[in-house]
Amino acid sequence: MRSKRRRISRFPTLSVATLSVLLIVATVIPCRNAKALAQKPVPRAAIQTSHSRDRLSSEASEMVDVASETVCNERIRDPKGSVPIDDMQARPSLPVDSPEAVAGAQRAQRLLPAARQLVTAWLRQLSRDYNVRGAKGYDLKIQRAIARVEAVRDVRPDVDSRDNASVLMRNPRTIIFGTIFLAGLPSDEGIISVLSHELVHIADGSQDNLKLLFRAIGNRASNLTGLKIRDQRAEELTCDLVGALGTRSYVAATPTYEALPRRISRALEHNCVDTDEGDEDHLSPRDTIRAILFLKPALSRELVYGR
């Protein structure tokens, strides 16, 4: 059986009975706690779907550059900013019972139901956006993928995983978080992003349920960025994209007094590294930020203009 362990370094629990999601093109219903789960539509702006197949203009490329800088500048100013993954790597191991790891694990477990809903909605939406739903057998595959997401129930902190999050296909109902990683993501938005990433791996499973979607997103990202994004790189980028989009929908449905760019940035801040290296399976962390913003220009505009 194939095992998927995703190294992110390379680069109060919700009641299931209260969870419901209105899965239509323009609506996602994220949640923060049981009382917030009354069906609440996300504004249309939070789930924009139109895109061009052409290479972006120089103005759009400049917007991505400015938005990327905004993400990393917000990280520095934000009391809840995520720790960059290269910084996490340099830190000593953290016991499971440390206050930071315990708080992080509780936050992840609390937000898992919301992340499941968001991932389910965005997998359906992206399948429409990239015109893969009509492919032979894809409807069955996406149904199977969503069933796998909905079956995930647990978050398990792990000392040895350190600055990583991962899933094992032999135990697809559990997401493993390194304790350093849990401590390094002090915001709900940061945790939602990583939970969503791992849920997409689980959705794909050993049967490659989402292979067509990964390929379509990888091809478009390659055209927009000029980078080579295929196979495992395409899968990892899709996971990160769903994490960012899921976080944006969560932000739309859980308004606070915090500025919009700050909350969006938390989905990407762990990629604000000083040592920016990729490998065959992953884009470099900063290239990951840029690729996501190229794929979703609306996020760049919101980061730059705050609306």
Write a structural description:
This protein is mainly alpha-helical. The protein contains 11 helices and 3 strands; from the N terminus they run H-H-H-H-E-E-E-H-H-H-H-H-H-H. The chain has helices spanning 58-77, 85-89, 99-129, 138-150, 179-184, 188-204, 211-225, 231-253, 260-265, 285-295, 297-305; strands at 154-158, 165-166, 174-178. A hairpin with a 7-residue loop joins strand 2 (165-166) and strand 3. Helix 8 crosses helix 10 (285-295). The model is unreliable at 1-54 (pLDDT under 50).
Beta-strand content bin: under 5%
Q: For the residues shown, what is the average pLDDT?
A: 85
User: Count of DSSP E strands?
Assistant: 3
Compute the separation of the termini in Å: 45 Å
Output the strand order for the largest sheet.
Answer: 1-3-2
Query: Secondary-structure element sequence?
Result: HHHHEEEHHHHHHH
**Main sheet?**
3 strands, mixed
Estimate the global geometry from the Cα principal axes.
globular
- Structural class, by secondary structure, is mainly alpha
Total DSSP helices? 11
Radius of gyration: 18 Å
What percentage of residues falls in helices of 4 or more residues? 40-55%
Extract low-pLDDT stretches. Answer: 1-54
Task: Note the main attributes of this structure.
307 residues; 51% helix; 4% strand; 11 helices; single chain; mainly alpha; three-stranded mixed β-sheet; disordered N terminus
